[in-house]
Amino acid sequence: MSSPFHLAFPVDDLDAARHFYGEVLGCPEGRSSDSWIDFDLFGNQIVTHCTGPRDPHGGGTGSGAVDGHNVPIPHFGVVLDMESWEALAERVRAHNIPFVLEPQVRFKGLPGEQATMFFFDPAGNALEFKALRSMDQLFAKQ
């Protein structure tokens, strides 16, 4: 059995975080206070901590090249089964969330072939959600 991860990260507006993670992504809400909210992100615990306005210059953020695309760094997300990934992509589209990297398959025909999509939450945190046809390919080498 896998152990769920825990990730705490900054947001600048708890109401926007509650809407995005709860309504857009469909994450059940756990405990909360007036400065943070726990969410169940596909069995993993994420915690949005309101830290006030973010650095407009992107303090420490950048991008990295992956399979011919620049992807935002840092980012986080979950590896899903293909059906859940496709449903999430439709859910994000239905809420008119712009994609940084549209849902697509990368590393086609190679070990570790995967579906992926990137988008930002309202506080500017980058998220990536992946899916593999077979989870045994998650750590496959080229």
Automatic annotation (TrEMBL):
List the coiled-coil residues. none
Query: Which CDD domains does this chain map to?
Result: VOC_like
Q: Which InterPro entries match?
A: Glyas_Bleomycin-R_OHBP_Dase, Glyas_Fos-R_dOase_dom, VOC_core
Task: Enumerate the spans annotated as VOC domain.
Answer: 3-132
Q: Which domain of life is it from?
A: Bacteria
Q: Return the protein name.
A: Glyoxalase
Q: What is the species listed in this Swiss-Prot or TrEMBL entry?
A: Gluconacetobacter tumulicola
